[in-house]
């Protein structure tokens, strides 16, 4: 017998389904209303030619060739004279650290649109001159961070155990087993100068080895783990058993570690430099090593470096080279901090993508010397749309003139930004006939402020 005061609640069971969220996503990708980006091409339809130097990742070369571009790939760097002779026919160039892009090279680069530095640094390029010529420069500032951090960790152990000396002795036939002056790194203090991507990764690895980590940086940074930021460089130097540098080469960092700084370091400590060759005063380092104030050093970068493998590293290149090479417990490596298969693959992918985005879509996101401008893609259905890429001098009145040239058309989206003396505008316009394009480009590029104007359709 039912209770008249009891409320009956009916519930319908959810239908059992075997469709997962992944199935729904795959189905949505097949939907006809999904917008796909349109592949853009230069108005001139001129085959893009790329010059790739210094044995850059073959994956990057394959990426460019897969897009139908002509690629000339060379394993070695080129001298300034060689570049001046060759670069005039190329629209893009990819280099690493040894090729120098100077004002003279840029003057000869009549067709050059973009420069890719397949490495961290860009000091091998005259960035201001490139910008004034309308050429953005892209690099890969973080792809080799792990490789450099791991090299530092290996150098900590190699220096503290004098492994370099013992290995060399045994190779010459001398058995010299000893423990004097050899230490565990556990419990020691690592001082990191520059707490960027490399410094932060290094700090985590170092703590897993039982090291105490201090760091010094010009800006306040949230530390990882139990690392601690110190207020002054001298405090870091005086408390650290190992000091490692991870800073860019700037006016303020050239010779930032010199005689005064070596004197501030603990007696018996070690210096590691995998940053830039001119941030350490090498003659002052030699004095600190010869006096036994420092117990050792690891140096991967130098003020002047050979242009190719097999070239001598001698006093003709750096006047102190032979003295440095003869010092005990000094590990010298030929700028290999980022030279791993993984790092080179990632660098190749990142810089190749940046160059492709600029050449195909005009995007300057990630450029080191240029305003960073981007627009969402033109869709495949927008057949009558074109993209205007206008590099110009940063001066008043330019946008007015450009918008007057664009006024007969519907401007669907537009974005511009400036950096120093350079400004860059992207605009997508609709319903443009093929016969309109040459005249439109002429009207925009004939303005006094014009540097480079490209139309992509």
From TrEMBL:
Per the record's keyword annotation, is Oxidoreductase included, yes or no? yes
The domain of life is Eukaryota
Q: Could you tell me which residue ranges the D-isomer specific 2-hydroxyacid dehydrogenase NAD-binding domain spans? A: 156-337
> Mind telling me which InterPro entries this protein's record contains?
D-iso_2-hydroxyacid_DH_PdxB (IPR050418), D-isomer_2_OHA_DH_cat_dom (IPR006139), D-isomer_DH_CS (IPR029753), D-isomer_DH_CS1 (IPR029752), D-isomer_DH_NAD-bd (IPR006140), NAD(P)-bd_dom_sf (IPR036291)
Q: Which GO terms describe its biological process?
A: L-serine biosynthetic process
Q: Which residues form the D-isomer specific 2-hydroxyacid dehydrogenase catalytic domain?
A: 51-369
One of the entry's Gene Ontology molecular-function terms is: (S)-2-hydroxyglutarate dehydrogenase activity
Q: Name one Pfam family in it.
A: 2-Hacid_dh
Q: Which CDD domains match?
A: PGDH_3
Write the record's keywords in alphabetical order, separated by commas.
NAD, Oxidoreductase
Question: Which family, according to the similarity comment?
Answer: Belongs to the D-isomer specific 2-hydroxyacid dehydrogenase family.
| PANTHER family for the chain | D-ISOMER SPECIFIC 2-HYDROXYACID DEHYDROGENASE CATALYTIC DOMAIN-CONTAINING PROTEIN-RELATED, D-ISOMER SPECIFIC 2-HYDROXYACID DEHYDROGENASE FAMILY PROTEIN (AFU_ORTHOLOGUE AFUA_1G13630)
Full protein name: Phosphoglycerate dehydrogenase
Q: Which species? A: Hypholoma sublateritium (strain FD-334 SS-4)
């Amino acid at each position: 017998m039912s209770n008249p005061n009891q409320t009956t609640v009916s519930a319908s069971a959810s239908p059992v389904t075997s469709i997962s969220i992944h199935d729904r996503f795959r189905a949505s990708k097949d939907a006809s209303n999904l917008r796909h980006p349109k592949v853009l091409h230069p108005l001139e339809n001129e085959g893009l030619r790329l010059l790739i130097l210094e044995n850059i990742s073959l994956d990057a070369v394959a990426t460019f060739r897969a897009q139908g571009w002509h690629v000339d790939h060379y394993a070695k760097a080129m001298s300034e004279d060689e570049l001046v002779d060759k670069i005039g026919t190329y629209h893009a160039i990819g280099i690493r650290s040894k090729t120098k892009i100077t004002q003279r090279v840029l003057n000869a680069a009549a067709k050059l649109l973009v420069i890719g530095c397949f490495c961290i640094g860009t000091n091998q390029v005259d960035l201001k001159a490139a910008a004034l010529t309308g050429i953005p420069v892209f690099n890969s500032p973080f792809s080799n961070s792990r490789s450099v951090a791991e090299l530092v960790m290996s150098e900590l152990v190699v220096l503290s155990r004098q492994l370099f000396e013992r290995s060399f002795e045994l190779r010459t036939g001398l058995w010299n087993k000893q423990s004097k002056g050899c230490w565990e790194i556990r419990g020691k203090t690592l001082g990191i100068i520059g707490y960027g991507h490399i410094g932060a990764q290094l700090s985590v690895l170092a703590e897993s080895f039982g090291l105490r980590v201090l760091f010094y940086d010009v800006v306040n940074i949230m530390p990882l783990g139990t690392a601690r930021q110190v207020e002054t460089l001298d405090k870091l130097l005086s408390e650290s058993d190992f000091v490692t540098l991870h800073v860019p080469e700037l006016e303020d960092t050239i010779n930032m570690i010199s005689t005064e700084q070596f004197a501030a370091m603990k007696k018996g400590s070690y210096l590691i430099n995998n940053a830039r060759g001119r941030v350490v005063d090498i003659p002052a380092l030699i004095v600190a090593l010869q006096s036994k104030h420092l117990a050792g050093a690891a140096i991967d970068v130098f003020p002047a470096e050979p242009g190719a493998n097999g070239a001598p590293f001698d006093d003709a290149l750096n006047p102190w080279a032979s003295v440095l090479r003869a010092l005990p417990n000094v590990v010298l490596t030929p700028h290999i901090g980022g030279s791993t298969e993984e790092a080179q693959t990632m660098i190749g992918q990142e810089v190749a993508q940046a160059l492709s985005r600029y050449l195909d879509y005009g995007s300057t996101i990630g450029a080191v010397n240029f305003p960073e401008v981007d627009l969402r893609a033109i869709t495949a259905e927008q057949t009558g749309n074109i993209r205007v890429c206008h590099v110009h001098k940063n001066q008043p009145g330019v946008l007015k003139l450009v918008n007057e040239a664009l006024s007969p058309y519907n401007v669907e989206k537009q974005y511009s930004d400036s950096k120093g003396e350079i400004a860059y505008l992207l605009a997508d316009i609709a319903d443009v006939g093929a016969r309109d394009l040459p005249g439109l480009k002429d009207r925009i590029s004939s303005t006094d402020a014009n540097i480079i104007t490209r139309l992509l359709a």
